[in-house]
Design brief:
Strand order of the largest sheet of chain B: 2-1-5-3-4
Number of strands of chain A: 0
Number of helices of chain B: 10
Distance between the termini of chain A: 40 Å
Helix content of chain A: over 70%
Largest interface: A-B, 12 and 15 residues
Number of strands of chain B: 7
Largest sheet of chain B: 5 strands, mixed
Shape of chain B: elongated
Distance between the termini of chain B: 49 Å
Strand content of chain B: 5-15%
Oligomer: heterodimer
Strand content of chain A: under 5%
Largest sheet of chain A: none
Structural class of chain B: alpha+beta
Chain lengths: 109, 261
């Protein structure tokens, strides 16, 4: 892993540490408070703070996960080189697309 | 740096033995394990045991040693599954039910029996730029290095490495990734990164980065746990991670921002 990938992974880890805690806390709050799906969507719809938070969360996860996955694959399989880096870029792109799609869907719904 | 070695007292349980007691030693040879029986002796070390077997029972047994006093780093082996320096390891401290299992160091090719080829270990030392680089024009005068400066203290923390290979054998990352430079080479690089006289820092930081470099360390701390000199290569590697990150960010900033500013 290059030093820049290392910095990117550690930096996004800091973001994820906060984002995951807020995410789980929100889920617990919503479930224990007995909110319905409609009531949850009523709060997220058009909520800029929600979109910015989950947008950042998705991008951080999309940067963080492929870097770690690349290290795991290099250690446990003989996969190396440009094909591995390309595949990890594809994983990052997939995470961004799926994640932002989900966040936008809840924001717009 | 080194703590004085205490003189063993006669009451020390690691020194005293029961008269007539024996020790069963299983040694990994080229064709599997071979068992030997050796008399227990006061203050007996693992190296004493191997030497006794070679001199009195089987002269074909291969192993390596030189100084016998914990300075040369030649005699490391795997003792009951853990890498250790055998000249300073007492039998009484590590024997399990009056038995010992001796194997060559892990992660290095075996030459014969308990002797491993240290060539890959020292090649990585070189690859990590483990030699002092005075630069093209060494200063005419002595460099002034304050003994209590943070850099000098960081050097002190890692300078006593004896190249025994124990940390290299203990490291799981080396086992998974044979290209990984390993704790000893990275620890050496960190001592030189903190040497203000050295003029090869950019190349060294480049050499210790990447998939074979410090960023691959998992911080398992096996090297620090097993180091017979009580060094902490894990913290040296953490220092290299910080230094390489700072250097890479500076280069990245210079390339992408300063030019356009």
């Amino acid at each position: 892993m290059s030093p820049l990938l290392y910095v990117a992974q550690r930096g996004t880890a800091v973001i994820l540490a906060v984002a995951v805690a807020v995410h789980l806390g929100t889920i617990l709050y919503a479930v224990r408070g007995g909110l319905t799906a409609g009531e949850i969507l009523g709060r997220t719809q058009g909520n800029h703070a929600f979109l910015v938070f989950y947008g950042l969360f998705v991008v951080a996860a999309a940067v963080h996960a492929p870097i770690g996955l690349r290290s795991i694959l290099r250690e446990w399989t003989p996969w190396r080189g440009r094909s591995l880096d390309g595949a990890m870029l594809a994983v990052a792109a997939l995470l961004v697309v799926l994640g932002l799609r989900a966040a936008l869907a809840v924001y717009v719904a | 740096m080194n703590a004085p070695v205490p003189t063993p007292s006669r009451a020390d349980p690691t020194v005293e033995t029961v008269p007539g007691a024996t020790l069963t030693v299983r040694i990994r040879r080229d064709d599997g394990f071979q068992a030997f029986t050796v008399a227990r002796r006061p203050a007996q070390t693992i190296l004493d045991v191997v030497t006794e077997i070679q001199r009195e029972q089987d002269p074909t047994l291969a192993y390596r040693f030189a100084c016998r006093v914990g300075m040369c780093g030649s005699c490391a082996m795997t003792v009951n599954g853990r890498p250790r320096w055998t000249c300073r390891t007492r039998v009484a401290a590590v024997a399990e039910e009056d038995g010992l299992t001796l194997e060559p160091l892990r992660n290095l090719p075996v030459v014969k029996d308990l002797a491993v080829d240290m060539e890959p270990f020292f090649e990585k030392w070189t690859a990590a730029h483990g030699a002092f680089e005075p630069g093209d024009a060494p200063p005419a005068d002595f460099a002034v290095v304050a003994p209590d400066s943070p850099e000098r203290r960081a050097v002190d923390a890692g300078i006593e490495c004896i190249n025994c290979g124990v940390c290299y054998a203990a490291c799981d990352v080396v086992a998974w990734n044979p290209d990984y430079l390993g704790p000893a080479a990275l620890n050496r690089a960190w001592t030189l990164v903190n040497d203000l006289r050295d003029r090869g820092q950019a190349a060294r930081l480049e050499a210790v980065s990447g998939d074979a470099g410090c960023q691959s360390c998992h911080t398992h701390m096996s090297c620090t746990e097993h180091c017979p000199k009580a060094l902490a290569p894990t913290f040296a590697i953490a220092g290299l991670k910080r230094a390489t990150a700072r250097s890479a960010l500076k280069r990245f900033g210079a390339r992408h921002f300063r030019r356009s500013a």
